[in-house]
User: Fold this.
Amino acid sequence: MSLGSRVKSTLTTLAAPVRAGIGLAAVGLGLILLLVPLSTHQIAIVTGIGLALAGVAALLLPALDSVSKVPARVVGVMLVLFGILIAVWPSAGAPWLAFLVGVALIGQSLFQLLQSIRNSGDQRAPHIIAALAGIVVGLVTFSWPVLTLTFFRLGVGAWFVFFGLQLIFIMLFHRRPRAPHQTSASRLRRWSRTLGASLALTLALALALGTAWVLGGVPLPAPGTFYTAPAEIPDTPGTLLRTQPLTEGVPSGAEAWKILYTTTHSDGSPAISSGTIIAPKTRGGDPLPLLSVAHGTTGVAAKCAPSLSATPFSDGAGAALEEIVTKHGWAAVTSDYIGLGTSGTHPYLIGDAEARNVLDATRAAQQFSEISTTERTVVWGHSQGGQGSLWTGQIAAEYAPDIDIVGVAAFAPAADLYGLAEVNKNDAPGKTVSAYIAATWDTLYPELDLAAHLTPGSAAPVSKIQNLCFNGQDVLAAILRGTQVPNQIFPDSLLAGKFGRLLKAQTPVGPFPAPVLVAQGLADPLVKPEQQRAWVGGRCAAGEEIDYRTYPGLNHLTLVAADSPLTPQLVAWTLERWAGKPAAGNCDDLPK
Assistant:
C-alpha cells in the first residue's frame, strides 16, 4: 500500500470518532443555547464555536460518504471561518447573526416564490402566499435584531442538538430515503393550506405594521416660524426676542407663553433658545417669586422641545410645579435648551451649556411685560435637568451675577455622567441615552469622531433613536430601539480615552451659591443610588452642604410623580428657601 493510500486510510479511520466527538460537542452547545440564559455576545460565541465544529464535520464528510467533495469542502471551510470570526469577535458577530437570519429567511422565501411561480399545480397558490409571508417576516427581523437573535438562538440550539445526534448515529442509520407514496390532495386539504398560508401572510403584515407603529414613534409638530431667529439679534445674552400664548397643556388656574431669547454656547458664542413661562391667572401688583426649571431628557431633535409638546409642563416634578404656580402664586420659566425648537445641535448633557440656557431664560422672564418677577430664583431639575440645575448653581456667580439663586433642587440628577455611561452601557435606557450622546457629541466634539468608533451594529440604531423624542409614545419607541442594539454603544476603549475624560468633565462639583437638595429613588434603574450617594459624599467632603433625601421603592419616574412623598416636600423646601429659613444638610449622617 502506498503512503498516500495509508494516509487516506488513517484519515478515514479517524474521521468517524472525530465526527462522533463533534456530535457530542454540538449536542452540548445546543443544550446550552436552549437552556442557559445568555447575553447576545455569549450567543454569538456559542454559535460561532458550533458553526466551526459543523464546518469541520463537513470537511470530514467526503471521507465517509459518497458525496461530492468540492461542495462539502467549500461549505466546511466557510463554516469554519465564519464560526471562528463570530466566536473571537462576538461584538461584531452578534449583529451579523441577526442580519443573516433575515437574509436567510428572505433568500429561502424568494427561492420558494420563484419555484412556485415556475411550477404549476394545485399547491401553487398557497406556496406563493407562504413565500410572501416569509419575505415580510424576514424584512421585519431587521428591525428586531436582538429579538431575532433570541429566536435564532432557540432554532440554532435545536439544530445543533439534531445535528450532533445525526453525527453520532450516522453510521447506525444510513439508509436510502424512500420516495413517498404520491397521492392527490383533496379539495379540503388544498383549501386548508391556502387559508393557512393566507393567515400567515395576514399575521406577517400585521407584524410589519405593528413594528412600524411601535418603532416609528408619532409625528410631532415641527418648529414653526416662532422658533426662527430674527434678522437682527442683540448681543446681550438673556434678551427676550418674542413671545406667544400657550393654550394646550396649561394647568387650570394658570396661563402660559412660549418665549424666544438670546443665550450663548458653552464656548461663549451667541445662540438662540426657546422656552416657556407659566404664571397664575390671578396675580397682584407685586413681583412674583420665580422658579427656574431645567427640564429632563426629551430627545435631541428640534421637534422634541417641551414648548412644542402637548404637555409642556409635565416634565419632572410637574405636579409640584402646578401646585407652586396655582396655589402659591409663583411664576416659572423653563428653557428648551439650544437645538430643541431652535436650530443648532442640542448640547445634550453638556452641563455648562444647559446652565447658560437656564440662566438666560431666567433673565428673559424678568423682561416679560405680562408679568413682574423678582431677580431671585429657585432652580429645579430632574435627571438631565438635575445635572443642569446643579451646573446652573455652579456657574451662576460668574456667568449671571445679576441673578440671585436662593436654592437648587436636583431630582435623580445625572451628576456622574461617566459612571452612568459605564454602569448602564448594556441596559436599554442606557443605550438610548448613549445614542443621544453619540448623535450630538459627534457634532459638538468633531475631534472625537464618535461616528467612526461606535461598536458594530450601533450606527444604524443611533441614527434612528436620535430622531425619536423621549416623551409620549416616542418614549416607548426610543426604549424599544435601545433594546435592539446588540452591543453597548461606546466601546470601552472610547470610555478610557478623551471621550471618557469629557464625560467626567460634566460632573458638577460646585461651589454652589445656595442650599442644595438632592432627591434619589432607591429603586432607580438608570441613575444608580450608590453612584448618587458617592457623588453626594464627594461634595460633602469638599465642604458643600447637601440635603440628601432617599425614597425607598421609587424609581426614576415615580420619584417625581404626583403621589411621590417628594412632591409636598419639594414645595415646602422651595417656600422655605424663599422665606430665607436656614437649610439643614445631612452630610454628617448620609442615608444609605
About this structure: The chain is about 50% helix and 10% strand. Residues 347 and 520 are 24 Å apart (CA to CA). The two ends are 81 Å apart (CA to CA). The first strand starts at residue 240 and ends at 246.
